[in-house]
Design brief:
Distance between the termini: 40 Å
Structural class: alpha+beta
Radius of gyration: 23 Å
CATH superfamily of the largest domain: Dipeptide-binding Protein, Domain 3
Shape: globular
Strand content: 15-25%
Number of strands: 19
Largest sheet: 7 strands, mixed
CATH architecture of the largest domain: Roll
CATH class of the largest domain: Alpha Beta
Number of helices: 17
Number of domains: 2
Amino acid sequence: MNKKLFTAYSLLFSFFFLACNLSGGSSIENPAAGYGVDRENALYMVGGQPQTLDPATTRGGASGPVGSIFSGLVALDTNLQVKPGLAAGWEVSPDGTLYTFYLRQDASFHNGRPVTAEDVVFSWERAVDPATGSDTAMTYLGDIVGTAEKNNSQAATISGLQIIDEHTLAVRIDAPKVYFLSKLTYPVSFIVDRENVGLPDWDHSPNGTGPFTLQEWQDDEILILAANENFYLEPPSISHVVYLMGAGIPLSMYEQGQIDLVGVGGSTLERVQDPNDPLYPDLRIGVNMCTGMIGLNTAEPPFNDPLVRRAFSYAFDRERLISGLLKGNALPAFGPLPPGMPGYSDDIQGYTYDPEKARALLAEAGYPNPADFPIITYTTAGYGTVSSSVTAVITMWQETLGVTIEPVLVEPFDYLDELYSGNTGNIYGHGWCADYPDPENFLDILFHTGSQQNLGRYSSPEIDRLLEQARIEPDVTTRMALYAEIEQLLVNDAPAIFTTHSLSAELIAPRLQNYLLTPIGVAQWQHVSLVPTR
């Protein structure tokens, strides 16, 4: 889930999540000055408080601090292609099930200890160990033979991993899967130090292998990364990356030159799109591989009934919400796959707003009188108040269907924990951003029975069968046709309400060079440079 499950923080549309992740700040000119940070050679931004910097349990993608402190065998570049990381290269067996990785002999942890194949095995076995409590380990490492047994406490080791020598590792997967390497770009596969992770509160002093080290982390105030001069690839050209997490208005901070980039949306985006606005030259707009959704708990009444799910789908007016709340800066989503994702098609037959059909379906489901429909809950994140987007949706459904919907507020910091614990209520704020450019990353991960990310507990034997067939289909055309069939079947069955495909919009300071607005968040701070302003 660049990663990313972005249900976090209750906002209905994925468009808002960039602004949410870039919220907070500081009113001080250089709040990192006391930590020896030179503003001219440091990248500043605002960011939310991390729940953890443990790559095994984080739910964020590689673009955040975890992706700078740690690294894996492979990574995604800014063109979304898999590139070597700690592994200088690899070989794949003719049957596509055995990967042999050759680790860089000059790669080391931040403390100078060389990285070995044993470190990879330790990191992956730790990630899938049930004691670690990872929500993502089996999603991204589960193709490796023996991970299920390790995760179920039926084995002490992962049988599909074989150390050939200090810098060579053989990895056996359960079937040929063209996307396997892409899965290894997600942080849960990143390498940790056995001695480091055994220390109390270790993620406040992590010993990673990435291009930056953690210099400082003051909760809800500041997080500072310092360049790792001994990085196994080209060291960063900037000295620090500073995340400000205190109080402040990000746009104002950007205008005052206190931060170097900020996400914009809504009326702010509308303003800076004016060529006469002084911030217009700094604006960059692009697509991202994100889909906003409203999750439905399909395991319990009333949304275990597909007629009810379809009724709510027909009662959802995405065009009204996009033109109103989003000022037109999003695309309507009628299926889970976002534009730019392989397999995406404009031909998907989704649910358009049709109040009469919605009410007819609800009556067919046994609720001709809306008063007989049970009161349902909408789980959303927030501090004391329900967001305008969620309020608009609740109002829309109540007016169109005559039902009663009660919002349930969960603190944003705890929101994902609640969802993964099964506390979704009847309806919940949801969404997904791609971790790698393959439709499996949406359709399989979100909707296959038993997937950790299948939060609505949706299950269809027919769709499971097709998903499992698509996993191992070697022909690209046939595989994409399978995913097109799967997506249409999913849309027909309405396991979720697909709302928007978001657009990325950021203000980027002229002094920040070589930064690319990518459809999927990738680690790239090691490649950027800063032009002096003095």
